Amino acid sequence: MNGGGTSRHIGRIIIRAIVTLLMVAILNFILFRVIPGDPAKLLLGGARTSVTAEQIEAQRQNWGLDRPLFPDQLVDYLSATVRGDLGYSFKFRGRHVADLILEHLPATIILVGIAQLTAIVIGVMLGIYAGWRRGGTLDNLATGTSLLLYSTPSFWVAMILVVIFSTSLGWLPGYGAYSPGGTISFVDSLLDHLRHLALPVTAVALGLIGQYVVVARAAMSDVVTEDYMVTARAKGLTNGQMLMRHAFRNAMLPVVTLIALNLGYVVAGAITVEAVFAWPGIGGLTVEALNARDYPILQGIFLLLGASIVVANLVADLAYGLLDPRVRQ
Amino acid sequence: MNKWPLSRRAVAKAMLLASAAPLVMNLEALAGSSCADGIVRIAGIAAPDTMNPFATWSSSWPMYFTYDALVGVDAQRHDDRRGFAKSWSVAKDNLTWTFKIWPSMKWSDGQPATARDAAFTYNYLRGSIGKPDELNVGYNNTGGLENIESIAALDDETLQIVTKSRTRWPVDNYTLMVPEHIWKDVSYAEARSTFQNKPPLVGTGPMIVSEFQPGQFASLTPNKYFRAGRPATAGMTYRFFNSADPIAQGLKSGDLDYGMSLTAAQWEELSNDPAIAVGESRIEQRNYLAFNTLSGKGAGSTKALQDPAFRDAIGYAIDQKTIVDRAFRGHADPGVGLAMPVTADYYSELSEIRRHFDLAEAGRRLDAAGYRDTNGDGLREDRDGNPFQLELITGTTSGVLEIPTAAIQLIAGWLEQIGIPVTVTQLDSGALAARTAAPADGGGGWDLLVSAGWLGPSAHDLLSLGNSKLIGTSNTSYWKNDKFDKLLSEADVTVDLKKSRELVDQASRLIYIEAPYIMLCYPFLLEAHRKDCFQGWGTNDAVSMWGYFPFDRLKPAPTP
């Protein structure tokens, strides 16, 4: 592909991404307002005295919910979004949505990021090896376990982990990101955080490992039967050379796609797992915002999620080109 | 050479290392489970959003620990749990109230806390009435202040409230007293929305919120200026959860000292733990079955719902005792009228008009009212000849007001037995609020509702279910009755408790007979605390639901 072609190709991808994000933004606006529920009424949901219609109306006016949806609220939202302003939260009483997302994002990236890396290393290695040694003991064991993990809801795995390791054995904390209160040193604080991370990371990683093993094994199973592998063996290459020089790279194509797509979902976190562990990440914020019908937060989170998936797809396209010369042509 | 297969020795080493990990991790106890630091760790199903009492309803806990109400519910129920005022009285005209503030009281920042601060709090609210930014959206709100003639500090220790008409509002309001020197420069526009009131807060309560992480926890430190002396504990951590599971786990593991909003199953399991004491609090919650009494826009699927005789007959098909025993495992009082047992001043057994569970009697009454099964298919028809097929909607209105599925199944089963089939629609809190909104706001269109509410113990709040001004909010059945409204208006301007009781009783009987609601039960709040770190908890109801008891008087337990 010549330089001009490459530029045009990248330009097309970027334009497609911008249009996609615009569609996501509009869809977000409509989608969350279709869900029945009045944020103004929910803001007064905890009231311990009778709430009047006037109080609900006051809340509506307070947060601009009394204005027409189309065009007023939609135009305001789109123009603010284009300027990079995600607006103000209802539930958190006027705090910037961007600030709230930035506060919760690190916890999710740490949790899902570590789980992803763990799962990629373990899952891909196991899957590749199981595919390479099809029918062996490890293959049967890894495939069976992976299918089980892949098909088990991660929140259920999370609950089981809590029951065993937190409630029964008392080895690890079952909720939160760290122990509040008290003044402890940086090292103790880090250790405390790692101990809180252990169970949620395991819960997320177990499901992902299953996914990676299944995909990597299937890809490797296809590769080992290819003609070029027979040729490689005929040329006298060792098992290790055949695996690393020929099989591995080819088998990685579908795995890279899966990794890239999964990395896109890092931002979304693992909502159900975060809920089980009361993890202070984006997942927890999403649940809170959904319960309060906090449209600005929901719009902000889903816009971020859309952007991360678009970027992840872009990375997958580029990685494909690096791994497979045929794509570059 | 192939290096891939793992050697048995390597696998054995890895397994050994893995098995040692928990031991290494458990070298010191969980950071949160130690008694040594003297910090009380509590948890509840809650989602506080801001520490600004003028902007939110969601943060009463932990704000209760920091701010005092002038009198408050607790002070009226318990002599030893006073608030900002040490004592109070009302003049013979029943309009002029005098409150004596604790002498030499201080805010947590050391500034004097006087009657002037109380006057400021109320007048700050009053000053906003009628303005675009009226303070009518939060816990501290203008409700009731329209009936106030004047509020003034006569001196540092004397607050006088003069009302326009007779009302118990001066002692029944729950407004939290805030310091003038902090709030005087906060505009109404900020106070009702964006002012975060960032910790450390300044209050007169025993524990001051010093750190607040929305969705996670609030840390509180002892108030060294607390009027009864600095609390004996080193502080508190209040953790917020969306469900009771981590609360039960935390109590078992020793990570929490106190937890509430437990389920019956969790509570019973915890009761078997020798290190834990369980308790149950009677609260102002009432779970009820409501009929959609609307005609016209928003009406239900049959006109029978508008007929008191039909609703009364259904009342005979509801067995409150079975609901308590089977759906709540005994952790509730059976439903009777609008007032619940915890509001001892107003509760009545309504003995002479009370319905009893009798499906045959329900059937007879339906027959008598003209709702018979004319074609022998087992289903009754309404007066228009249409077979009944009622939609029952339900859902969780908030974390602590969960409706057990078993209760819904029981009700649907009983109605089925008297020839009235029911389809159940489960909704989330937002959707439930949308469907029970006023018809003008798109609400209605359902037939039966099983829901719950938890308001205050005042006469006004007890009668809210029938208040025509609250249709679409508290009054979910859309029921309107002029006589009821008149009784409510009278109760609103009655100071004398005996007279107030009579009015509430009359209104309760009227709505019971008309039956827009069938009270199912008054659930208990289930709670538990560990015995190893602290002592001084309450007996059966370990913790007040309207104040900071016992966190002002907890002490570290003696080490064994």
UniProtKB/TrEMBL annotation, chain A:
Chain ranges of the ABC transmembrane type-1 domain: 105-316
Cellular component terms per the entry's GO annotation: plasma membrane
PROSITE patterns, A to Z: ABC_TM1 (PS50928)
Lineage: superkingdom: Bacteria
Main location: membrane
Spans traversing the lipid bilayer: 13-35, 109-132, 153-174, 194-215, 251-277, 297-323
Pfam family, any one: BPD_transp_1_N
Membership in a protein family: Belongs to the binding-protein-dependent transport system permease family.
Name of the featured protein: ABC transporter, permease
